[in-house]
Specification:
Number of strands: 4
Distance between the termini: 22 Å
Radius of gyration: 17 Å
Structural class: alpha/beta
Order of helices and strands: HEEHHHHHEHEHHH
Shape: globular
């Protein structure tokens, strides 16, 4: 377990700042869940988060967050500084929760609408659902489930190191919420 945590920290150390607030749902669907889906794509959301860390879009998001913080500091406005600093740390914590735990990655997938749409069309699936979201999976009871994690890993066009880490994380169970919070506190001091 310790090696896994070290590997995740290394994989995520490229900068875990720039994520928007995650939605509470794990499922990305072209149809409401009340519609009978024939086939759903199931994926390990941790792998998506790890593949995203260090990607071009992640780095751009991080740069934007850090620029806003730098501008706030330059203004000397303590309220703006505190707000910008909070956004940076909240983003970093969110990506830790996504990469170490089972937090939804919809905020990441929303950055890649064309790629998500193409994956769904290519595989003939009606929805994408995190394998950790029992509630969403129950909404699609009876639907054929296809594991699309490997394809989801490729969506953010990860570097090779990120790709390997995204695949490696699948071999272990997610950390509990309490364990994730301990990792966050250890890594961020917050």
């Amino acid at each position: 377990m310790k090696n896994l945590i070290v590997a995740m920290i290394a994989a995520c150390a490229l900068g875990l700042f720039g994520c928007r607030a995650a939605t509470t749902e794990h499922a990305i669907s072209a149809k409401p869940a009340t519609t009978a889906a024939r086939r759903i794509g199931v994926y390990d959301s941790r792998s998506v988060a790890v593949a995203f860390a260090g990607s071009a879009k992640h780095e751009a998001r991080t740069a934007s967050e850090l620029t806003a913080l730098k501008q706030a500091k330059a203004s000397g406005d303590q309220v703006k500084i505190a707000e910008a600093d909070k956004r940076v740390w909240d983003s970093r914590k969110r990506l830790h929760r996504q990469g170490f735990g089972t937090a939804p990655v919809n905020d990441i997938l929303e950055l890649y609408p064309d790629e998500v749409r193409a994956l769904k069309a290519r595989r003939g699936i009606d929805a994408l659902v995190s394998k950790w979201d029992a509630k969403a999976l129950a909404q699609y009871a009876g639907a054929e489930q296809l594991d699309v994690t490997d394809e989801m890993i490729e969506i953010p066009q990860p570097r090779e190191k990120q790709r390997r880490s995204a695949q490696e994380i699948r071999k272990s169970k997610p950390l509990s919420e309490a364990q994730v919070e301990r990792v966050i506190k250890q890594e961020t001091g917050h």
